[in-house]
Amino acid sequence: VAAAVDAWGRGAAALPKPWRPQQPVLPVEGMRNVLITSALPYVNNVPHLGNIIGCVLSADAFARYCRLRNWNTLYVCGTDEYGTATETKAVEEGLTPREICDKYHAVHADIYRWFHISFDYFGRTTTAQQTAISQDIFQRLLARGFVLQDTVQQLHCAGCQRFLADRFVEGICPFCAFQEARGDQCDKCGKLINAVELKAPRCKLCGDSPAVRPTRHLFLDLPKVSVPRCWTGGEGALSCPRDVTVCCPQLEERLQPWLERCWATGNWTANARYITRSWIRDGLRPRCITRDLQWGTPVPLDGFRDKVFYVWFDAPIGYLSITANYTEHWERWWKNPQQ
């Protein structure tokens, strides 16, 4: 309080000069560099006040605070545009997925401008940079043996003549009997679900009852994934001379104590704690990272080129690719823990 009174008495003339970052905003040696991202809003709707509050307002307030503190600040966001929900919306409106994304990206951008949200850059995930970075990450995982192939039983709709991705299916939750469970998760009990486990499944596109048929998919082998103790970011981790599966602990082994620290010191929501605990309690399992869709990042592997990456493998990479569309020096923000 005394410091505030003193600063107030000295007046605005005594304040430090406002920091004017270079364009594009890049980390500066010797300064506090802050990268802020908002959760990427999904593109298939018109954002309302609740979306603003839940998605961008807190980050915008923090970005303004950081700039007032003269911290070198970059605030990016963008629309999340791939996945089943876009295809579903396109069917509803009689448009192509690309037309849906173009339409609603413009709507989102206009609304955030109207609210004066102070993004340095507002991008989108349907870009060449998104494809390049996502496929590069996939190729690195594949080269290190962290991707496996498996045949899975999947729901196929004869009426639509297609395999149905998770969100094209609804039905009764096998755990809690919720009537409108999705094909990947029940929003009532939080349990992860395979679509074939749903009771009385129905196709969201035509309403028919799909049949179970086999199909091949790619999985991220989470039980096998190891985290190098020597990892510090950048390329150093990729040139480790030893076999990381031998010298480094598995992800689950390091994730548990990290989560315990975060739960004790952070402000996680009750829902986030519950879902995360259920994943750890049940043990990490291989997670499917491909889908039988047309709208998504193509899978660069023979035998799977008719598939795309699952949006939850692909969408978080959007933070990187949006920054990459803002500046070609994006790695100085994302691979630069020293600054």
Automatic annotation (TrEMBL):
Keywords associated with the record: Aminoacyl-tRNA synthetase, ATP-binding, Cytoplasm, Ligase, Nucleotide-binding, Protein biosynthesis
Cell compartments where the protein resides: Cytoplasm
Domain Methionyl/Leucyl tRNA synthetase: start-end pairs: 34-337
Biological processes, Gene Ontology terms: methionyl-tRNA aminoacylation
GO-annotated cellular components: aminoacyl-tRNA synthetase multienzyme complex; cytosol
Superkingdom assignment: Eukaryota
Catalytic activity: tRNA(Met) + L-methionine + ATP = L-methionyl-tRNA(Met) + AMP + diphosphate
Enzyme class: ligase
The keyword Transcription appears for this protein: no
Main location: cytoplasm
EC code(s) of this entry: 6.1.1.10
MF (Gene Ontology): ATP binding; methionine-tRNA ligase activity
Family: Belongs to the class-I aminoacyl-tRNA synthetase family.
Protein name (database record): Methionine--tRNA ligase, cytoplasmic
